[in-house]
Amino acid sequence: MSDSLISTLDEGRSEPDHLRQDLWSVLKGMLAREFLIALRRRQELVNPLVFFVIVIVLFPLGVSPDPGFLKAASAGVVWVAALLATMLSLDRLFQGDYEDGALEQTVLCAQPLYLLVLTKNLVHWSLTGLPLIVLSPFLAVMMNLESEHIPVMILTLVIGTPVISLMGGIGAALTVSLRSGGVLISLLVLPLTIPVLIFGTGTIQASIDGLPIGGHLAIMGAMLALALTLSPFATSAALKMSVSN
Amino acid sequence: MSDSLLAAERISCERDDRLLFANLSFDVKAGDVLQLEGPNGAGKTTLLRILSGLFHSYDGKILWRGENIQRCRAEFESDLLFLGHKSAVTATLTPLENLRFLMGLHQQVGESELLLALEKVGLAGYEYVPCRNLSAGQHRRVALARLYLSKARFWVLDEIFTAIDKAGVAQFEALLADKAKSGVAIVLTTHHQLAMQSVRKLTLGQVSYV
Fold it and tell me: Testing the interface with B: which of A14, A108, A109 to mutate, by most B Cβ within 10 A?
């Protein structure tokens, strides 16, 4: 940040300042572009959602349709499916930009790269995490989760899926220059998401058992705060590395 | 040295156990056109990527107005126009949307200016067609429309005439000459014979120790 401060103080600049793009306009432009690209590739948006539904449906069909089992497994199944569905959507996060060269241009933008990365994360989450959350109550009912626990499940997903998106962004950035990055992202990122999974399902389980959930939610909130503040830096460092090859 | 925009000081770069160039020193002043020459694999693209701050595995220093580019990134990048091998044109977006995004990263450009630039590069009537339906040359022209709009003072252009027809090459060369006259410093590689006057040439491919 000090760089931009110095450059605005520098009186030697011959370029008038009003011609330079301000941060907000850059981020708005990025946001508009990301949504446009995503909406032109609707198939890719639907894939993780269909995957999410199918994985959950497999459990009553493949393991047991017994209501007792489904209820006990519901929190874990919904969460694991959400985790895998998000992983599935991650490999395209930077891939297109890397292939056509837009990533180089983004890296060379004078504005802080981590904010541009955060914008991309935001778009990714609102187009994969958010639809998953909208679908989850229906699947929870199918998994025989009692309706009073569904708001808790939604809350854990609202806090937890952004964490997965943000962490996954690091993996996507590291593997963007590789041919078969998709599987590698999952191998890199899934172990890191275990704490979120534990506390996500733990919160729902505590609610089912009639225990207080405030502590669980606080820890998940801390994870989200950590992921929001740290992962964009790691992602942008990884992107710079990938672009320089 | 005060009027030099960018100075390279004793740059050496090794890739895959091969020394591309060693102790390379040169400077680029406002209005200069510097053409990098050399056979394929001589390191032209690598040098351009070093100059634009995309590639970091090198020895030596690159100074932007006397300051190391690693230390004044924001200032350097706001004055840099980089057109690489990859055109940065997204296939699912239209030429207008592509240009709006690419220009928006660096400066404020009005919608009418964008349309005018697209008209100048011969894409009138294609503004709203997805780029995947365009030819390779038209694709390249979308990227080159940035040359008409950019207010950056240091241009790094890597093989920008690929897939452009003869008339187009002449048109863009004239534009480059024009921009150089108005004080833009240009470093480029091309396999085309440039008709421009006063092009400085730097030949890579034979390692020379200064």
Answer: A108
Question: What pLDDT does B206 receive?
Answer: 64
Contacts of A4 in chain B (CB under 8 A): 74
Question: What is the full DSSP assignment across B98-137?
Answer: HHHHHHHTTB---HHHHHHHHHHTT-TT-TTS-GGGS-HH
CB A165 within 8 A of CB A125: yes
CB A33 within 8 A of CB A97: no
pLDDT at A229: 95
Nearest to B92 among A13, A40, A104 (CB): A40
In chain B, the residue whose alpha carbon lies closest to the alpha carbon of A23 is B105
Structure token digits, residue A213: 């959930």
Q: Determine the Cα–Cα distance for residues A119 and A108; give it in Å rounded to an integer.
A: 16
What residue ranges do the domains of chain A occupy?
A: 14-244
**Partners of B4 in beta bridges:** B29
Interface test with A, best of B106, B133, B146, B184 (most A CBs within 10 A): B106
CB hemisphere CA count around B81 (13 angstroms): 26
pLDDT at A12 over 50: no
Helix (H, G, I), strand (E, B) or coil at A177: coil
Give per-residue pLDDT as tens, A63-121. 999 999 999 999 999 999 999 999 999 988 999 999 999 999 999 999 999 999 999 99
Chain CA centroid to CA B153, Å: 11
Nearest to B70 by CA among B54, B46, B47: B54
pLDDT at A11 over 50: no
Write the DSSP symbol of residue B205.
S
φ and ψ at residue B54, rounded to 5 degrees = -90, -25
Q: Which positions of chain B have pLDDT values less than 50?
A: 1, 208-210
* A224/A209 Cα distance (integer angstroms): 25
Higher-confidence residue of A231 and B73: namely A231
Q: What is the DSSP letter of B132?
A: G
pLDDT confidence of residue B82: 95
